[in-house]
Amino acid sequence: MQLFSDSFQDGARIPGRYAFAVPANSGHIALSDNLNPHLHWQGEPVGTRSFALVCHDPDVPSVGTDVNVEGRTITADLPRTDFFHWLLLDIPATTHDIAEGSHSSGVTVGGKAGPDAPGGMRHGINDYTGWNAGDPDMAGDYYGYDGPCPPWNDARLHHYVFTLHALDTPSLGLGERADGAAVRAAIARHTLASASLTGSYSLNPALAG
Hints:
By secondary structure, the protein is mainly beta. The protein is built from two helices and ten strands. Strands 8-6-5-9-10 form a five-stranded antiparallel sheet, with helices on one face. The protein has a three-stranded antiparallel sheet with strand order 1-4-7, with no helix packed on it. The protein is globular, with a radius of gyration of 17 Å.
């Protein structure tokens, strides 16, 4: 099975219009277009009854003490953890494309509504839900896609892995607030094949490119 995108090439930088934030001339960052990228896939195995899409960043600092703190740098060797940016479930087996901007266009303060998604699909909650929980101006359940916003003082380039899973069930049957851990556990029991596409992004001027 193969996964492609017209929005960025595998191993390349993700353009800023697909990010949650972009570098700014003052204040370090500014909110961006936050468009979900285009995706296309083919070559799924016989017996595929649905697909599930997971996008995660494996380069998120495991300790947030120095995140976006003036005068501090998050060292590249700090242990890292996963941050889920998109959980799209119950994609019909007849679907082979996701159009750019069809699931996200702009940053929605407090998060996009869910779990219902276009075409009978369902969204899980991404990890901006937890990250913004302590911010009264941004708190809420963040369903669907929200793009890259790595710390602007992180010395490590962040990677965004889009993985499509072909499943042997038409629905994972998860609840309304399915998170990354729940989705991964459910997918593991039903995956017939998978394919991945990885892009990179940084808000650190020293790593911009």
